[in-house]
Amino acid sequence: MTTIFLHIHKTGGTSLSHALRWGTQFARRHWTEPGDSWAKSYQDLSEKEREQVDLLQGHFLYGIHEHCPGPATYIAMVRHPVERIISSYYYTIDTFPDTYIQEMTLEAFAAGESIHRECNAQARRIAGVSKDEAESVSSEGLFDRAIHNIEDHFACVGLLKRFDESLMLMRHLLEWSFYPLYLREKETTDRPRGNDIPSSTREAIRRSNEVDMRLYDFVVSRFDEQIKSQPRIERDVSRFRKLNCLYQKIAPWFVEQYRRLR
Predict the structure, then answer these.
(1) CA 23 to CA 171: how far, in whole Å?
(2) Residue among 141, 122, 144, 132 nearest 62 (CA)
(3) How many other CB atoms are found less than 10 A from the CB of residue 191?
(4) The pLDDT value given to residue 147
(5) What is the DSSP letter of 191?
(6) Which of 24, 121, 145, 244 lies at 20 to 30 Å from 253 by C-alpha?
(7) Half-sphere exposure of 178 (CA within 13 A, CB side)
(8) Positions of E strands within the chain
(9) Considering only CA atoms, which of 90, 141, 139 is closest in space to residue 116?
């Protein structure tokens, strides 16, 4: 079974990627580069090489499972669309200080008026619709495709705001033998939050991301049902949080020592 981690930008995916490093049952992993939307680097492997990959992850679109020699299942994380857009906007400004994005308003960014095309990006990735194809697919068609793919091919779609629960649910559903410990990475801390963003701006983001809003509501409902189906999940989440709290205290020290020795 190949586990496919579909990493959606600014949904906690880097922290999940860190957690998956603990997966000793993953004998061979394949990471794709950020711009590799169709996971071409994986497709270019020989069939024998692809047979050996049991964890595939990257910022690609849904559909790569068709190139897996055997059975495959997806996992992903999603985030409330308004919060994701705000985080992505300020992260992009910090990352690309010399581009026209510096002059772009948050509303324009949310509407997809940049090369990043952030509007409904979560639905597009899960539906397997590229930026160039987005305008040719109706909102209803995009939503239906995303829901169909989740129900048929995603073992779990987690929620950033319930990150620890998401990891434990994945552990239960996919029968991981390891605890997916993680460090919080790539957090955009120096940005406006909550009530700092005018209500009119937040409403504009909602309008520009209507499909993502509907998709998010669906994922929350599905997530709640999956949690209810796991009677031991509450106990395991409590145990995991204590363990991960300790890990977050000691892991940075080991990382720093490793860097000094290099």
Answers:
(1) 10
(2) 122
(3) 15
(4) 98
(5) S
(6) 24
(7) 12
(8) 2-6, 29-31, 55-58, 72-78, 154-159
(9) 90
- Mean pLDDT, rounded, of the chain: 89
**What is the distance, to the nearest Å, from the Cα of residue 194 to the centroid of all Cα atoms in its chain?**
21
Q: Reduced to 3 states, what is the DSSP secondary structure of residue 133?
A: coil
C-alpha distances in angstroms, 103 versus 65, 67, 90, 106, 261? 39, 41, 12, 10, 42
199 close to 104: Cβ distance less than 8 angstroms: no
Nearest of 9, 147, 134, 28 to residue 78 by alpha carbon: 9
**Model pLDDT for residues 9-54, shown as the tens digit of each residue:** 999 999 999 899 887 778 899 999 888 888 999 999 999 999 999 9
Tokens at residue 230, please?
Answer: 């796991």
pTM of the model as a whole: 0.90
Q: Which residues contact 47 (CB under 8 A, 6 or more apart)?
A: 69
